[in-house]
Design brief:
Strand content: under 5%
Helix content: over 70%
Radius of gyration: 27 Å
Oligomer: single chain
Structural class: mainly alpha
Low-confidence stretches: none
């Protein structure tokens, strides 16, 4: 069995625990300060916008397809549902862009004033 030079883990002293807690707090604070002001990457923004738009179109097309199955109106439900999904996806993207824009302006206000 390998010998250990350290103290056993079952008997830490109060000062050792306090020192460990201080090191953990310092690392956590340094990490939070480093990541707090990082802007969102273009990839993250594009992925969010794309998923918002795709979800809207997919839900609209799905509802239109279900309408076709229930009402038996041929491809019209799917086409109209896809158009409504397109409009809904566009509104989702605009809403997400406004939300991100307001977050960015709040961050710039915090950093300047």
């Amino acid at each position: 069995m390998p010998s250990r030079k350290d103290k056993p883990l079952s008997d830490p002293s109060k000062s050792d625990l306090d020192a460990l807690q201080q090191r953990i707090d310092a690392k956590r604070e340094a990490y939070e300060d480093k990541t707090k002001d990082t802007p969102r990457s273009a990839w993250a923004l594009g992925t969010r916008y794309g998923s918002e738009f795709f979800a809207g179109v997919l839900v609209g097309a799905g509802l239109g397809f279900l309408l076709d199955l229930v009402a038996g109106i041929g491809p019209w439900g799917l086409m109209i549902g896809t158009l409504f999904g397109f409009a809904s996806g566009t509104l989702n993207v605009v809403r997400a862009a406004k939300e991100i824009n307001s977050e960015m302006s709040e961050q710039s206000d915090d950093s300047t004033g």
